[in-house]
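Task: sequence design from structure.
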C-alpha cells in the first residue's frame, strides 16, 4: 500500500496533445505563450519548452484533437520498473519504453482507468532554451484537468496507487488532487466523455495576467473567463482556447497545501480557517462573485 505521505511522483512534466493542424496549434504556443520548439521527431511530433525542460508540451498530427498522454516525474527512489511491476499487479497495462520520444530516454507507460495514458519517467533532458521576454511567458506547466467517464476509478488510481492527496472538490464533479505543495496537480472531472478540460501554466505574478491578456488580444485570442479568483485552490486564473478549442489556463497565487496538516497555508482571502479540503458549490467557482458569460463548468 502506498504511504499516505509519500506520493510516487512530485510534478507534472508534460502533456501530449493530438491536433488536426499542427502548424496552427504550434504557432499559438510559440507566439502567445512564448514557448520554444526544441525538437521535431521523425514522426513529425513537435516538442515545445517553456524555458528549461526539453518539453512541457508535445504536439502530434492527427485527424482529431485528443489528449494523448500526460507525463509525471518520478521521485528519485522510485524506478520505472517499480511502477511497471506495481501497475501490473493492479491488473493495469504497463509498458517500459526506451527512446519512444525525444528528451526522455526511458518511460513506463501505464493505461490508467478510463483509458488515460500516463507516462512516468526519472529523467528528462534540460537543454534550457531560455524563457521568452514579453507575452504570457509562463514559469511552468502546473496542472492538467481531465474529463473522464471513469472518474471515480481514476481518482482512486491517483490516490491509492500514486499517493496523491485529495484537496477539494466542486460538487463532487471536479476533483482536485496533488502530489506536492500546490493545491492541485491534476483535476479530474467526472462526466460522460474523455478529453482534456484544460492545461494550466503558472505566470510569474499577478501583473502578468494583464500582460498575458494584452498579448493574447494582440493576436486576436479572446479570454473566456477571468482573470478572477477561484474558490477551490484560490488561484487567480484566466482561461482561453487554443486553436483546437483546448482550454488553456494562466494562474498565479495557487493555494499551498500542507499534507502534514491536511490544510492549505492560511491566506488573507480565504473564506475558511483552517482551509481544509471541502466540497465547494458551483456558485463558489468565483470567489469574487463576478459572473462571466462563458460556462467554465462545461468548458
Ligand atoms: Fe485549472
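Answer:
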Amino acid at each position: 500500500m502506498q504511504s499516505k505521505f509519500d506520493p510516487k511522483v512530485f510534478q507534472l512534466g508534460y502533456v501530449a496533445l493530438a491536433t488536426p493542424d499542427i502548424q496552427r496549434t504550434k504557432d499559438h504556443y510559440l507566439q502567445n505563450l512564448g514557448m520554444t520548439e526544441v525538437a521535431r521527431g521523425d514522426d513529425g511530433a513537435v516538442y515545445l519548452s517553456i524555458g528549461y525542460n526539453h518539453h512541457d508540451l508535445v504536439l502530434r498530427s492527427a485527424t482529431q484533437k485528443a489528449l494523448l498522454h500526460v507525463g509525471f516525474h518520478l521521485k528519485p527512489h522510485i524506478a520505472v520498473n517499480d511502477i511497471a511491476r506495481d501497475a501490473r499487479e493492479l491488473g493495469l497495462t504497463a509498458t517500459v519504453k526506451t527512446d519512444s520520444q525525444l528528451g526522455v530516454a526511458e518511460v513506463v507507460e501505464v493505461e490508467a482507468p478510463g483509458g488515460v495514458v500516463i507516462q512516468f519517467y526519472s529523467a528528462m533532458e534540460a537543454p534550457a532554451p531560455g524563457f521568452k521576454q514579453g507575452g504570457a511567458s509562463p514559469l511552468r506547466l502546473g496542472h492538467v484537468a481531465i474529463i473522464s467517464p471513469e472518474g471515480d476509478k481514476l481518482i482512486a488510481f491517483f490516490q491509492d496507487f500514486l499517493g496523491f492527496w485529495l484537496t477539494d472538490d466542486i460538487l463532487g464533479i471536479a476533483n482536485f488532487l496533488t502530489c506536492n505543495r500546490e493545491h492541485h496537480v491534476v483535476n479530474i472531472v467526472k462526466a460522460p466523455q474523455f478529453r482534456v478540460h484544460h492545461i494550466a501554466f503558472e505566470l510569474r505574478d499577478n501583473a502578468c495576467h494583464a500582460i498575458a491578456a494584452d498579448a493574447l488580444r494582440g493576436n486576436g485570442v479572446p479570454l473566456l473567463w477571468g482573470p478572477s479568483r477561484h474558490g477551490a485552490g484560490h488561484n487567480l486564473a484566466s482561461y482561453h482556447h487554443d486553436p483546437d478549442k483546448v482550454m488553456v489556463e494562466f494562474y498565479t497565487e495557487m493555494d499551498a497545501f500542507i499534507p502534514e496538516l491536511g490544510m492549505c497555508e492560511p491566506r488573507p482571502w480565504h473564506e475558511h480557517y483552517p482551509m481544509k479540503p471541502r466540497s465547494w458549490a458551483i456558485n463558489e467557482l468565483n470567489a469574487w462573485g463576478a459572473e462571466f458569460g462563458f460556462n467554465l463548468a462545461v468548458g
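The CA atoms of residues 13 and 72 lie 5 Å apart.
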